[in-house]
Amino acid sequence: MVSSSSIAVRELPIFPLPEVVLFPGRPLPLHIFEFRYRIMMNTILESDRRFGVLMWDPVKHEPATVGCCAEIIHFQRLPDDRMKIVTLGQQRFRVLEYVREKPYRVGLVEWIEDQPPAKDLRPKAKEVAQLLRDVVRLSAKLTNQKIELPEDLPDLPIELSYWVASNLYGVALEQQALLETLDTEKRLERETEILTSTRNHLAARTVLKDALT
Question: In the predicted model, is pLDDT for residue 1 greater than 60?
Fold first, then answer.
């Protein structure tokens, strides 16, 4: 008897990237110039336009085991067969093993999803969205710049959790941990902690700025 998990297994070309974590539903523009990845992209464009993005682990010096499938939605060929592509994150996956290493890695992967929530997460999502608005408002005040959240900010808890995670900057290992989390509530809780800390830090700086001006 074939298990349900084995049905969701496929081979996927793998593109490791340092300091980059892709999330479902989020765009990722790339400039393809390395020869092996030019080969990879040309091959992908002749099939389903999908490949796996994995963060390169700077500690272990190897790709992470959990990543996100990217689908090419636009591409532009440049001189010397270089390419600019725009991709969109699809399903998350876990690498079970590598079936090929050259000219580029190809992994046998299984798709992974969040567990169904045990309770209504919309209140938690609203809390996260409010924290986002606070952080943006304080950042705009500190930098004297106009900073706004997008009008199409996701309102579904899981999609909002991906959006927030993808917009954290300079914390790739934290983003990777959020990508690997298979519980929407836990992801939102961790983002609440991060945003609360950021808001409090920005609020303190704002008070100091007001006191000095």
Answer: no
Mean pLDDT of 141-152: 86
Identify the DSSP state of 12. Answer: E
Instruction: Give the dihedral sign, CA 37/39/40/46.
Output: positive
SS (H, E, C) 64-91: CCEEEEEEEEEEEECHHHCEEEEEEEEE
Residues 95 and 4 sit within 8 Å (Cβ to Cβ): no
Angle at 166 between CA 142 and CA 52, to 5 degrees: 155
Q: What is the pTM of this model?
A: 0.90
* Gap between the Cα atoms of 71 and 50, Å rounded: 4
Mean pLDDT of the chain: 92
With b for 16 or more beta-carbon neighbours within 10 A and e for fewer, the 119-128 pattern comes to eebeebbebb
- The C-alpha atoms of residue 108 and residue 8 are separated, in whole angstroms, by 10
Phi, psi of 16 (to 5 degrees): -80, 140
> pLDDT (tens digit, 9 = 90+) per residue, 5-23?
445 799 999 999 999 999 9
List the Cα angle 141/143/144 in 5-degree steps: 65
